[in-house]
Amino acid sequence: MSRIALVTCRPGPDTIADPDLPGLLAALRAAGADAEAVVWDDPDADWGAYRLAVLRSTWDYSWRAEEFLAWTARAGALTRLANPPEVIRWNADKRYLGELAAAGVPTVSTTYLAPGDPVTLPTTAGEFVVKPTSGAGARLAARYTPDEHTTAVRQVERMHAAGFTAMVQPYVRAIDTTGERALQFFGGRLIHAIRKGPVLAPGTPYDARKAPHPGVVPWEPTAAERAVAEQALAAVPGAAPLLYARVDLVDGDDGRPHLMELELVEPHLFLDLHPESVRKVVAAVLRAAAEGD
């Protein structure tokens, strides 16, 4: 019997419970696996006792990034970690978007401002977004008009003081009409997709808590969306296979899908909208656990 850890985080005021975790655990156990949920920073966890540890809902990692990445290295030396530690480290810093853009993936234009860099932000044209390169769930993200330039500069300065690198993107106007699509892959295959509405409302302070997945509905991805998603996945560096991935897409000004984010750390799976995908996830996890037999 394969012993499998589904890795999560401690409940707290800044995290939500993983709605997919109980059903996924039950399905894995019904399929014969010895599966349990384990908190990533539990000092008593024996990671070497597991055949496979699957990152599921480590949703506090972005504000503890170095601590979390150090844990992935330690745990990855004791068990098979999915996704692999080197992939997690690369994907935990959104400067990977620049690498994917350089590889030809249609990507939302992004500028990076590290601590010590001059704070240069747009002063003309349309709205823009400021957020940290290490972040999840729209944490510390805000949407600005050019008239709010001073407030945006103040946000970047506060982020720099806290050690964060800021990223600046044009606000993609199509999000307000066609939303954002998330294509979910497991075991190298597209299992389902969702669409959600805009997360960043005008005037919302960057340090306010946001609903990261408003208005979520099932979605049937187009051929163009699938093509961009597969192009992004093919451009991930390294030879290690990915157990899971979520590819977030938006429509650019040209009407074509562009990559907003490639989530390889701890994506929400939305299994409540796609219960038929549970068996696909379970089969992929069991295959990964069996590799090397």
Number of strands: 13
Helix percent reads: 25-40%
Our estimate of the beta-strand percent is 15-25%
User: What kind of sheet is the major sheet?
Assistant: 5 strands, antiparallel
- How many helices? The count is 8
Radius of gyration: 19 Å
Element string (H = helix, E = strand): EHEEHEHHEEEHEHEEEHEEH
Trace the largest sheet across and list its strands.
Answer: 11-10-9-12-13
The shape is globular
Structural class call reads alpha+beta
Oligomeric nature of the chains: single chain
Distance between the termini: 12 Å
Low-confidence stretches: none
Average pLDDT reading: 92
Task: Please name the defining characteristics of this protein.
293 residues, alpha+beta, five-stranded antiparallel β-sheet, four-stranded parallel β-sheet, 8 helices, globular
Overview of this structure, please?
The chain is an alpha+beta fold and 293 residues long. The protein is 27% helix and 24% strand. It is built from eight helices and 13 strands. The chain has helices spanning 21-30, 65-76, 85-91, 96-102, 149-161, 175-178, 223-234, 278-290; strands at residues 3-8, 34-39, 52-57, 80-82, 111-113, 128-132, 142-144, 166-170, 180-186, 189-196, 217-218, 244-251, 257-263. It has a five-stranded antiparallel β-sheet. A four-stranded parallel β-sheet has the order 2-1-3-4, sandwiched between helices. Strands 5-8-6-7 form a four-stranded antiparallel β-sheet, with helices on one face. A hairpin with a 5-residue loop joins strand 12 (244-251) and strand 13. Helix 1 crosses helix 8 (278-290) and helix 2 runs antiparallel to helix 3. The longest helix has 13 residues, at 149-161. It is globular. The relative contact order is 0.17.
